[in-house]
Amino acid sequence: IYVDSVSSTINGACFVNDSVGYIAQNHKLAAKTTNGGENWFSIIHPVISSDSHCEDVFFLDENIGFIVGNDDLYNDFIYKTTDGGLTFTEKTNLHNRTLYSVHFKENKGVIVGKGIVGSLKGSFTTDLGETWNSSTFSGTSVVSTLNKVRFISNDTVLAIGESGLIFKSIDGGKNFNYVQTPFNGVGFQGISFKNKDSIYISGRSSSNYGNNNCVLLSTDMGDTWQNIIDTNVVTNKYIIKGIEIDMYNKVWLYGNRSSIFTNAAEQVSVLDNDIINNSFELKQNFPNPFNPITTINFNLSTSSKIELIIYDLLGNKVKELIDEYREAGNHKINFDASNLSSGTYFYTLKANNLLICKKMTLLK
């Protein structure tokens, strides 16, 4: 994405509906779309410094939102807008370091990040960000960076970070208690859930032995956790960067090597050529980008029941192209996107309990 002639790393994103979304980027850049990601424009203009970053963004609706990060002197900042990014108020130096995550539930909000040496850092608000107070952390002597914070309910908050840190608050982020797990060496990066009965976090260990990735599941609001990752599929050559839960409560992991893993099929499946080459192959659509027709080719090593489905950027099913038994061999099908708007779409091929996904771009 190019905004103000700058293309920088996207650190956080928040969509409030199908059309309006916001992103936080390096170089202290923040941008907005009002047409589902087709075009973006800056709401916080980029700076030259390579040390100033917008790290995360969260909007309660189209107008009220917050962006956090740090400037080139590593002073933290919180930007608040009530008019969809036209104007901002700013608060700085709450932690005197970087803020990495922000989340709100109505008027209540929590921020976490990296504090000065020897301290855990988080703050909470009960008046929609007008005033902030420091959170307390208890139950462990481990001090490290907190990477992500999320409200699970009106008052329950989870904060995760490096060195296996998982904290839970039941008073809106005022007081956090350490949750003991066996995963002390894991740097937790992602939290996702569709309901409070199934909460997932993802991370990666710094250990040089065994499988370094983990996906933890809690069914009791974050009090206990179990590792559900399939190490036969998500092997150590992959670095899991994040996790999302779709509308069907299925888990999607994403990481390096353009890898995507999911349990949307009957078993956890890997979308990587090392495993699927001996089973089936999904080729890149051609042409790509396209307008409005493109061809999708795939190859089956054995006859099988297959599904070929198109999804939009939000994970909504756009078109089911194939849902039937196909013989082994090469196959192709045309996809007509005349009734769709420009943007990024995904197409997935499911066969033999494996799923592979590729990205395509519609430009009109």
Describe how the helices and strands are arranged:
Layout: E1 10-15, E2 21-25, E3 29-33, E4 41-44, E5 53-59, E6 65-70, E7 76-81, E8 89-92, E9 99-105, E10 108-114, E11 120-125, E12 133-134, E13 136-138, E14 146-151, E15 157-161, E16 166-169, E17 175-178, E18 186-195, E19 198-205, E20 213-218, E21 226-227, E22 240-245, E23 251-255, E24 260-262, E25 269-270, H1 273-276, E26 280-282, E27 293-300, E28 304-311, E29 317-326, E30 329-336, E31 343-351, E32 354-362
Parallel strand pairs: 13-17
Antiparallel strand pairs: 1-2, 2-3, 3-4, 5-6, 6-7, 7-8, 9-10, 10-11, 11-12, 14-15, 15-16, 16-17, 18-19, 19-20, 20-21, 22-23, 23-24, 24-25, 26-27, 27-30, 28-29, 28-31, 31-32
Structure in words:
With 364 residues, the protein is mainly β. It is built from 1 helix and 32 strands. The chain has one helix at residues 273-276; strands spanning 10-15, 21-25, 29-33, 41-44, 53-59, 65-70, 76-81, 89-92, 99-105, 108-114, 120-125, 133-134, 136-138, 146-151, 157-161, 166-169, 175-178, 186-195, 198-205, 213-218, 226-227, 240-245, 251-255, 260-262, 269-270, 280-282, 293-300, 304-311, 317-326, 329-336, 343-351, 354-362. The strands form 8 sheets. Strands 13-17-16-15-14 form a 5-stranded mixed β-sheet, with no helix packed on it. Strand 7 (76-81) and strand 8 (89-92) form a beta hairpin.
